[in-house]
Amino acid sequence: MDAVTAIVIFLVGSLVIWDSSRLGAKWGADGPEAGYFPFYIGLLLCLASMVNFIAAIREKQNESFVSGTSLKMIFSVMIPTLFYVGLIGGVGPVPGLGIYVASAAFIALFMKWLGKYAWPITVAVSLCVPVVFFLLFEIWFKVPLPKGPLEAALGLA
């Protein structure tokens, strides 16, 4: 099963590389082109899936694919991640919050719920990380990411 998963991930990574090349995956005169970062993410997906494929072939196949405890952990990460994606762009008629507000909520949820961190460190990290990413992508790389009503109210959209 791991080998099949590795093949599927490799195909997804290949699709990302192909589409990123179509958009432009080089560093242009004014910064990275639209496909620059997705190209390298696709490349990492392909390399990681090749490593997993080789490991899966070498591994004995009579082990269970996933235990009940592992499956619970997978769902405890996957379900909030799906909500996070929905919060970024919105779902149906519900408008999105943008990536920065959704990221702050997502980080805070994971730090408090799964990491059991104290509130001061949770609030500090969940607010600082989106601010750093805003400065990195919007100011430094000039790559606009999805923004929501808060950024619009602050004049940052």
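[next item in queue]
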Amino acid sequence: MRIENHPILEFKRTKKVKFYFDGKEVWGYEGESIAAALHALGIWEYREGLKTKRPRGLFCAIGHCSSCLMEVNGVPNTRICVTPVKEGIIVKKQLPKGDLVEKL
């Protein structure tokens, strides 16, 4: 669900683009945050907690916490609440934390 009308803010929609989330083709508006696009599609679980293994989603939504860390185009620990959607990007859940070293 996206906010379409707001008494103070204005939301300009840009080009609709496809990207991939955990191997599935999804869409968002170019330039909106990945988190906003996933949230609008009803996807609210982005990773799992390191100790508890419980699902994590948005918390601050302004890039200060680490609740929304995901792997974007192979780069782990990307804060998707401040990372814009682009055509063809590949987004994956982190289970439970990202690793820069590719496992063989």
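[queue empty]
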